[in-house]
């Protein structure tokens, strides 16, 4: 993976080093031309050939300088590799002239000329080694031209001295090749170390930048959060103090109390929003996909926001759809609630439109929330998804929201596997949309509205509640009692197990996560399930309730699909979760019965009875929705 950047870095360094030597080489070659002309001057063999050869040498030298100037002026003109090829070509042209010119020395019957010329060639070869040795191409194209003709001609002379000289030259040729090889290896290591260091520095700088950004975002988050939390607290403090005022009339006291309640509600809402976001961040929220009719969900959220829209003189239009989707209705409802609440808040006239569009998709489509409101400038399209960011609320007036809705929506849509898209411009309204997967009408277990309103399924159910806090046990007993449940409270695991052995077989076990004596709800539930399973009661619904958010164990439970509810748990949320879990349990029971009966039927041909039993238990014999019926979400809040 790293080979390419390193090769490129090596090439870039090579170009720098190769070309850096060229001005010196230019003067050295003039010196070499002058020396060669001087030693041949007294007896120039074949003058026209000699002139042509040295003319070519001089021209190649000037060409080399021109290439250097081009490289200095326009380094981007060629890629580093191409600059290396051009330099190698320059080497071939430049070194072939003096290398081949040694032939002239052997044309003159004067014994010291070949030696003198060879000394000059060895000097040039040493220069090539120094300046081009770290590049195989430049080195191996220049050196043979310089030395081979000389080696061959010395060998061909058949005299002892020349043969020795040829051997020495050949040895020299081999030696500089070996040295150049280690030279190149060293060069590569140096460049690699430099590139590694550069990578390290860059990645450290990037990490530092990310850490700084995160720290700044955190600071902004806390500054905004503490401001927004302080405001209602401050107001509550002042209002509470004014309750002491004995001169105030009962009507004034009542008004003050009303303001206190309003501020407490605002505080509660903000807490819920912050906790919601933190819960989404901590990864304990579970996605439970069901097959359901989108129109039912649209109707539910529509009925919540229609009065608000009507109060502002806005029409809330819901496009009719027969679409069945496979998604998490609770999380989806939170998304739509946030988007619709914004649409109502930021629209002064016109209409709000909620609908489903195929938009070219075969296996699903997009849910769209559209409004004809104030719109959002393009340069704010990213920032509005930051926590506590609001486009136009510099005084942070709590009545205009807190800037937590869209960050929550973005995370929720991400959890559901989609991406939130926004189209908006000032004065031209806004469109928020996100994808949903098509579902299977055959997989619908129950109507959404039925699940929320609660069918008769809570009536007569036996519920075991485990909590070390007596007030919570009391609260649960009273709530579940109102739903018609038969409730038994246990302060710890031991009391719960004792209740089971005394014959109480629950339909659901609700358990707090943090129990006394360093026991967790997960451990207590395992023990309870064990006892129930041994007694043949496999399908008992269990539900953990916790105030923790970042515990690794909770995250693990969420991954395993163990149902977890996060405090504060509203009655509606508890009811809805229990109903869903019971429905699922009944469906599982029905399917298990059907399977057993089918097996028996294969042997005895009596499967029909069991299939009927399954149908009775599940309300149908269709397949169950995917995933277990677990929930750690919360209700839509805005
Ligand atoms: P809040 O609505 O509580 O301020 P959000 O996170 O939901 O917080 O929205 C952030 C900002 O995005 C809002 O302050 C508002 O400026 C802008 N915004 C959101 N939805 C719309 C909309 N439908 N039309 C215009 N502006 C919007």
From TrEMBL:
Entry superkingdom: Bacteria
In-chain residues carrying the UniProt-annotated modification 4-aspartylphosphate: 512
EC number, UniProt record: 2.7.13.3
An MF annotation (GO) of this entry: phosphorelay sensor kinase activity
Region named Disordered: 599-638
First-level EC class: transferase
Cross-referenced Pfam families: HATPase_c (PF02518), HisKA (PF00512), Response_reg (PF00072)
Keywords noted in UniProt: Kinase, Membrane, Phosphoprotein, Transferase, Transmembrane, Transmembrane helix
Known catalytic reactions: ATP + protein L-histidine = ADP + protein N-phospho-L-histidine
Compositionally biased intervals (Polar residues): 628-638
Compositionally biased intervals (Low complexity): 615-627
Residue ranges occupied by any Response regulatory domain in the UniProt entry: 462-582
Segments passing through the bilayer: 24-42, 49-71, 83-106, 136-156, 163-182
Record PROSITE patterns: HIS_KIN, RESPONSE_REGULATORY
UniProt xrefs under Gene3D superfamilies: 1.10.287.130, 3.40.50.2300, Histidine kinase-like ATPase, C-terminal domain
Xref: PANTHER family: HISTIDINE KINASE (PTHR43047:SF9), TWO-COMPONENT HISTIDINE PROTEIN KINASE (PTHR43047)
Protein name as catalogued: histidine kinase
């Amino acid at each position: 993976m790293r080979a390419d950047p390193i090769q490129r870095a090596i090439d870039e360094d090579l170009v720098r080093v190769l070309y850096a030597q060229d001005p010196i080489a230019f003067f050295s070659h003039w010196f070499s031309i002058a020396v060669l002309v001087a030693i041949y001057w007294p007896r120039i063999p074949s003058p026209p050939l000699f002139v042509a050869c040295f003319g070519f040498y001089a021209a190649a030298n000037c060409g080399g300088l021109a290439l250097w100037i081009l490289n200095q002026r326009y380094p981007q003109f060629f890629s580093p590799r191409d600059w290396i090829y051009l330099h190698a070509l320059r080497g071939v042209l430049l070194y072939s002239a003096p290398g081949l010119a040694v032939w002239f020395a052997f044309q003159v019957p004067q014994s010291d000329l070949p030696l003198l010329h060879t000394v000059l060639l060895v000097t040039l070869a040493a220069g090539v080694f120094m300046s081009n040795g770290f590049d195989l191409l430049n080195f191996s194209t220049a050196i043979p031209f310089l030395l081979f003709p000389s080696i061959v001609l010395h060998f061909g002379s058949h005299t002892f001295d020349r043969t020795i000289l040829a051997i020495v030259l050949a040895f020299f040729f081999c030696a500089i090749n070996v040295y150049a090889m280690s030279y190149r290896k060293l060069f590569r290591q140096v460049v690699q170390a430099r590139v590694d260091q550069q990578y390290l520095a860059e990645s450290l700088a990037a990490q530092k930048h990310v850490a700084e950004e995160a720290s700044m975002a955190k600071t902004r988050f806390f500054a905004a959060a503490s401001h927004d939390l302080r405001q209602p607290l401050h107001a509550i403090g002042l209002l509470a103090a004014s309750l002491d005022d004995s001169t105030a009339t009962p009507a004034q006291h009542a008004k003050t109390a009303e303001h206190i309640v309003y501020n407490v509600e605002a505080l509660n809402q903000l807490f819920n929003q912050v906790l919601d976001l933190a819960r989404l961040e901590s990864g304990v929220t579970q996605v439970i996909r069901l097959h359901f009719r989108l129109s039912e969900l649209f109707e539910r959220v529509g009925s919540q926001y229609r009065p608000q829209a009507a109060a502002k003189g806005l029409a809330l239009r819901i496009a009719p759809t027969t679409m069945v989707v496979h998604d998490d209705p609770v999380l989806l409802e939170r998304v739509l609630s946030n988007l619709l609440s914004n649409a109502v808040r930021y629209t002064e006239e016109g209409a709000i439109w909620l609908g489903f569009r195929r938009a070219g998709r075969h296996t699903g489509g997009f849910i769209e929330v559209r409004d004809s409101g104030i719109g959002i400038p393009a340069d704010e399209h990213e920032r509005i998804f930051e926590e506590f960011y609001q486009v136009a609320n510099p005084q942070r007036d709590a009545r205009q929201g807190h800037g937590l809705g869209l960050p929550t929506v973005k995370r929720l849509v991400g959890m559901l596997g989609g991406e939130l898209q926004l189209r908006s411009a000032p004065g031209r309204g806004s469109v928020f949309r996100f994808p949903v997967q098509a579902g299977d009408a055959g997989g619908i277990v129950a109507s959404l509205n039925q699940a929320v309103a609660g069918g008769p399924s809570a009536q007569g159910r036996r519920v075991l509640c485990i909590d070390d806090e007596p007030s919570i046990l009391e609260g649960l007993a009273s709530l579940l009692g109102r739903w018609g449940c038969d409730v038994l409270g246990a302060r710890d695991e031991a009391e719960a197990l004792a209740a089971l052995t005394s014959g109480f077989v629950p339909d659901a076990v609700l358990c707090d996560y943090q129990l006394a004596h360093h026991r967790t709800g997960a451990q207590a539930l395992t023990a309870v399930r064990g006892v129930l399973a041994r007694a043949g009661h496999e399908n008992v619904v269990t539900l953990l309730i916790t105030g923790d958010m970042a515990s690794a164990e909770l995250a693990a439970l969420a991954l395993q699909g163990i149902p977890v509810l996060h405090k504060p748990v509203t009655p509606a949320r508890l009811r809805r979760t229990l109903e869903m879990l019971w429905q699922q349990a009944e469906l599982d029971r029905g399917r298990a019965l059907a399977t057993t009966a089918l097996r028996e039927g294969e042997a005895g041909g009596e499967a029909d009875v069991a299939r009927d039993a399954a149908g009775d238990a599940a309300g149908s014999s269709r397949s169950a929705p995917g995933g277990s019926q677990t929930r750690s979400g919360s209700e839509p809040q805005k």
